[in-house]
Amino acid sequence: MRIELGYPDPIAERILLQWQDRRAVLATLGNTINLLKLRELQAHCKTVKVSEALLDCIQRIIAYTRETPELTHGLSPRGGMALLSSAKSWAFIDDRNFVVPEVLSVPC
Prior knowledge:
Helix content is about 55%, strand content about 0%. It has 5 helices and no strands.
């Protein structure tokens, strides 16, 4: 997966250059949830339903990444599993217990 953020505007970039080391900032952050709650959320994501038709769609996406000459590397089996897991997570975040094709951002 990839997210393009682009470059910051000059003022934001100046602030970044003047700011302290990010690792130091991360060390000051507290937890927002505990490990038990995180595992509970992960378990709920695993229960999200995926139809056979949607699994077919995901397999077509995986095959496309392996066959198209525009891509130098196709999705690995683990990459396909990560795609499915991400789709389930987005469905859970959207308060659904099933995945819809729109989550994949491609036509099936």
